Amino acid sequence: MDKTYTIIPDFLLDYDLTLSETVALAVIYGFCQDGESDFHGSYNYLARKCRCSRQWAIEIVASLVKKGLVQKEVTESKGVKSCSYRVTFRGSQESLPPVKKVDRGSQESLPRGSQESLPNNISIENINEKKDIKFNFLSALKSLGVSDEVAHAWMQVRKTKRATNTEIAFNSIKREIDNSGRPADECIRTAVERSWSGFKAEWMPKQPVKRETWEEFKRRNNL
Question: Model pTM greater than 0.70?
Answer without folding.
Answer: no
